[in-house]
Amino acid sequence: MTPAAPVTVADAVAALEAAYPPALAHDWDAVGLAVGDPTAPVRRVLVAVDPLPAVIEEAVDGDVDLLVTHHPLLLRGVHAVATTAPKGSAIHRLIRAGTALFTAHTNADAADPGVSDALAAALGVTVERPLAPEGDGTVGIGRIGTLAAPETLEAFAQRVADALPATAWGVRAGGDPTRTVSRVAVSGGAGDSMLHLARAAGVDVYVTADLRHHPATDHLAEPGAPALVDVAHWASEHPWCGQAADVLARAAPGLEITVSTTRTDAWTVGQPSGAVNA
């Protein structure tokens, strides 16, 4: 009996690009295979949000052949890859270990299912359509959907906190805590550029990351505007890791696939603030 051919980096890339077509990526993005030999065999895969040093060390220590991340390592122009620079050091570490690096970024944001579908599923939201549809309307950034039953904003914020990995930032909500929410918009990653779309969609609450003070306060001042739930960027995209792992598991059942639990959120300390009497 002829043994099955080993899964290669090219095989894994093909499965991931079928799920997250590169054509969906924004023109400024850098997606696809960034480091590695397409013909190299793959036995172990690690999926993470960020290709930061701690994640790369996790991959190397685990004898991982392919590291799959959401955020690119080389998003902006790089003029040298010396080990004296963080990105150069990362590239050398991956090459020396024989670990390939693949990225699906804005193409994974827009794909169906994609990053926001994974976030919606984690929150118990049944998806109806994209928040910012593209092309034929089946793909696009963000998602709109409904909860199984209405609940207060305060209860929903707790739902979000319970569903996502813990961060120092935690979860913040803006709006009347007693407001009833049923229809929900979500967008993994930084989403305040789509506040107007959440208002136009008539949802009760919008969940995203990296909300800034002025856009958020201006939004909440609009009559009937959705409440806001703001989470850490990394936490909002972490559910996608499980989705990407499932893509690979279906394409190549023999792979050993692990979702990284290394917290790569930028913020490491969170302290409650208190009023100071003048």
Overview of this protein structure:
- This protein has helices at residues 9-19, 53-61, 86-97, 106-110, 115-123, 153-163, 195-201, 213-221, 233-237, 239-251, and strands at residues 32-35, 44-48, 66-69, 100-103, 125-134, 139-152, 171-174, 180-190, 205-209, 227-231, 256-259.
- The protein is α/β, with parallel strands linked by helices and 278 residues long.
- The chain folds into 2 domains: 9-108, NIF3 (NGG1p interacting factor 3)-like (Udp-n-acetylmuramoylalanyl-d-glutamate--2,6- Diaminopimelate Ligase, Chain: A, domain 1, 3-Layer(aba) Sandwich); 112-233, NIF3 (NGG1p interacting factor 3)-like (Udp-n-acetylmuramoylalanyl-d-glutamate--2,6- Diaminopimelate Ligase, Chain: A, domain 1).
- The strands form 2 sheets. The protein has a 6-stranded mixed sheet.
- Strand 2 (44-48), helix 2 and strand 3 (66-69) form a beta-alpha-beta unit.
- Helix 1 (9-19) packs across helix 10, helix 2 runs parallel beside helix 3 and helix 5 packs across helix 10.
- The protein starts with 8 loop residues before the first helix and ends in a 19-residue tail after the last strand.
- The model has no long low-confidence stretch (mean pLDDT 95).
- Homohexamer.
- It comes from Actinomycetospora aeridis.
- Belongs to the GTP cyclohydrolase I type 2/NIF3 family.
- This is GTP cyclohydrolase 1 type 2 homolog.
Write the layout of secondary structure elements.
Blueprint: H1 9-19, E1 32-35, E2 44-48, H2 53-61, E3 66-69, H3 86-97, E4 100-103, H4 106-110, H5 115-123, E5 125-134, E6 139-152, H6 153-163, E7 171-174, E8 180-190, H7 195-201, E9 205-209, H8 213-221, E10 227-231, H9 233-237, H10 239-251, E11 256-259
Parallel strand pairs: 2-3, 2-11, 3-4, 8-9, 9-10
Antiparallel strand pairs: 1-4, 5-6, 6-8, 7-10
